Amino acid sequence: MPKGLDLVAFAKLAEKHTLFEDHKATWTKEELTRLYPLDIAATHALTKGLQLYGQNRRSLFTFIQASGVRLRKGALAFGLPEVFDHLNSEFYSFLHGAFNPNRRQWEMIWSAMEKVEVDFAKDRRTYLDIVKTIGLLQLVGSRGATIDEKFISAYLGAIYGEVDLAAKLKALSDRKILLFVKHRGSYKLQEGTDLDLDSELLKASKRVEDIGDVVLKLAPYFRHKYVAAKEVTYRKGSPRIFEYRLSHAPIDEKPKGEVDGIINLVFNSRSKLEQLKKESLKTEEAIVFGYFKNTEVIVETLLDIERTEQVISQNEDDKVAVKELRTIRQHHVNLLDHYIHDALYSSEAVQWVHRGKHHTEVKDARSFNRLLSVAIDSAYPSAPTFRNELINRESVSPSAATARKELFNHICDDWDKTDLGFVGTEFPPERAIYTTLLRENGIHRAGKEGLDLFAPSAKSTFTPLWEACEQFLLDSRHGRKDITELMERLAERPFKLKYGLVELWVPLFLFIKRGDYALYREGAFVPQLNGTILYEMTRQPRDFQIKAFMIDGVRLKLFNKYKAFLGKDEVKHLTNGDLLDVTRPFLSFYRSLNAYTQSTQKLSPEAKALRSAIEHATDPEKTFFEDLPNALHLSLEEVSKSDEQLGHFIGFLSTALDHLQQATPRLVDRLDAFIGEEVLATGERFPDTQAAIKGQLHGIREHQLFDHLKPLFKRALAPLDQCEAWVSSIAEGTIGKPLSKFSDLDEELMKERLLGMYKELVNLAEVHGVESDPQGAPVVRMQITTSSKGTRTETIQYPARKKAQVDKLVKELKAHLSADGPVDRAALAQAA
Q1: Tell me, what DSSP letter sits at residue 318?
Q2: Which H or E run includes 228?
Q3: Angle (nearest 5°) at CA 126 between 123 and 127
């Protein structure tokens, strides 16, 4: 080995300039000597070249052991230029063939060498050595290699004694053979382009001096979107998610949906830490502020990206230049990534603030994540601990929704059974929900009357949640409230429950407190809860409203008066069950009224108002404490003045109810009177009217009646001993309706028809009562009224032997009649 050749220096040089990714930092002199005549850089390059192109036939060791290895004249070692020559010579056919995976890079080196051949006559070998060294390292070296003037001068100077390499590098750059990449501080071979990249970027820097909206420009490069606060998630069971938000000034927004907190990164070089601390005190939300102190550097990097993009857009047709410019742009993007992501946990770059305090303890990702948990605990101190991944999430899976539905059925049907009726080792998903929520929090436990559902135990973390729900129930005394309002409250501070838990908790709470409020669905009162209704609350919560009972002393007194009126025991506290216990008899009373009573207007104003109040009752509390008193022209204030007034009110109520019950009997009485006074003209009443009609119609032969008279005839003579049944029978025979289905118009229609139909029956009774020859002509009854002679009624009958004479005379009369009907009838009447 020649004197003066320091192989260790080559190893250090390779390490310093990061020539190869797998370069070992601790090469010993003995190891390096064994590699001679190769230096360490040439060794790496040759090894990789042989691996790429040697087809497993040649190796570094066979190369070293070969006797044909000769150094170039004046060279102290077999350097990178000679490695290039060896590979180019040994694998010439493959390198120029279609299967060379790096053919484009080799062609770029060959093209650069051709340019040197043309442009440089003096010191051509040195120029070629530079091109071969840079080209080979560009091909097999690391992407982060720094091939600068210092390396070229040190390396080629040591092996070949070449000098003045800085000037030669400049000359190669001027000829567009080499390109110095500033952001990497490294030379590379330049593909064919006449564009002076440095000059163009310099011009662009003068055109693009302002980035505009920093946050808007920075947002596309910020790759963090969400991060979980791990500690509090593990501790309380609810997944707590923070969203990164970039802004110029501190924000104060309410986290919504899956987002529980905000990491607000503030980019404003004019902002100060103290100002940010003051702003952070104004919000109670889970917001952690990060103030970037290196905003100016970030802005400058964004400007570099913008300028590079501008040069790219202006030279899109120069593919070689565009490719290099894109590499430059990516470098700036990587640099920006370092400034905004790698610097997140650096106190020199970012200052973290929460609730007015500068958290200097944030030094890494772990301490930062701990700060997020602190922010969650601060914003949501009343959030319960609930470890159930099925339910404790913002949106539950279909299988979890099914499990929740099954649990609702168990709650409604088996609340008084051990483990809600789950038996043995059976452990479906709904049982897991029951165990983690109801059993572990003491909600389902034994009471004085056995197993039941209660408020959470005193030690349960669900107690604040229960108290908030009770307050909501208390607030609903003054008017109905949508259960969506309660759900929205629980999804905000100080709870911020996941919506999957909200949809389980609210129906559960309402079932436990079912006796303390009235439930409405789309305005209609829901008398009883079941599993289906609880499930529907999770599907269509906007359809449901609740209203707690506002029961003071007066209302309780009045309510107990209602109970006494119905023959039921008094109560000390009003519940939904008590209210339903009183509601049912009134509703049953209304349903028991026939159609006539439900529709007639022939009632007292109080009875009509009472009937309407019961008919349209959708809110039991309003019905009993407002509508019924108002129907009787009283108010709750008036009723509350004294016990005497309460007594009067119940008396009025009883009178109005009696008036409703007597609506049909009064109708019967009116029609019975009409029959006696108008139809019979005797003034008699049932049963005398019934007897009188039977006496007048007994001679009628039913088979000779017209069809429209047969029903009335049959029903008038029906053997009924009750006035209402007999009058109703006549009504049905007259207009085809029983009294129970009458309307007020039907009453008048019956009176009108009954008068005419009964007169027809009476006339027929007289006709049928006249003795007639079985072989004779039919009997005729004729009634004629004139102003001179008054009314004459004659029953005409003639013997059968005279029938021929009658027929002949009828024929002769018809022959003399005119075509004018009224004239003919008038003439015949006067002749009679």
Answers
A1: -
A2: strand 226-228
A3: 90
d(CA 609, CA 90): 113
Q: What is the crossing angle of helices 103-119 and 124-140, to 10°?
A: 170
Q: Which tens digits make up the pLDDT trace of 606-652?
A: 888 888 877 777 677 777 666 777 777 766 666 666 666 667 667 77
What's the pLDDT score for residue 168?
Answer: 87
3-state SS class at 183: coil
- H/E element, 795: strand 790-796
Contact (CB, 8 A) for 596 and 646: no
Alpha helices by DSSP H, listed for 635-743, are 636-639, 643-661, 663-674, 688-697, 710-716, 723-735
CA angle 417, 421, 424 (to 5 degrees): 120
**231-265, pLDDT tens digit by residue?**
999 999 999 999 999 998 899 999 999 999 999 99
Q: Whose CA is closest to 133, among 284, 13, 297?
A: 13
Can you say whether the dihedral through the CA atoms of 82, 87, 88, 89 is positive or negative? positive
Query: For the chain, give me the number of helices (H) and strands (E)?
Result: 38, 16
Give just the sign of the alpha carbon dihedral 716, 719, 723, 724. Answer: negative
CA 292 to chain centre: 37
Per-residue pLDDT reduced to its tens digit, 727-750: 888 888 888 888 888 888 988 898
Q: What is d(CA 672, CA 686) in angstroms, rounded to the nearest whole number?
A: 7
266-280, 365-379, 454-468, 754-768 — which is least confidently predicted?
Answer: 754-768
Phi, psi for residue 479 in degrees, rounded to 5: 170, 160
CA dihedral angle for residue 69, residue 73, residue 79, residue 81, rounded to 10 degrees = -100
Provide mean pLDDT across the span 377-385. Answer: 95
Residues paired with 525 in a beta bridge: 520
Residues 6+ apart with CB under 8 A from 159: 39, 75, 76, 77, 79
Q: What is the largest CA-CA distance in the chain?
A: 176
Rounded Cα–Cα distance for residues 77 and 66 (Å): 15
**Euclidean distance between CA atoms 771 and 781, whole angstroms:** 13
- Give the CA distances from residue 812 to residues 294, 354, 809, in Å, rounded to whole numbers and listed in that order: 133, 125, 5
Q: What was the pLDDT predicted at 765? A: 72
Helix (H) or strand (E) holding 830: helix 821-831
Q: What is the pLDDT of residue 482?
A: 95
Helices (H), 435-575: 463-475, 483-490, 499-512, 531-539, 553-565
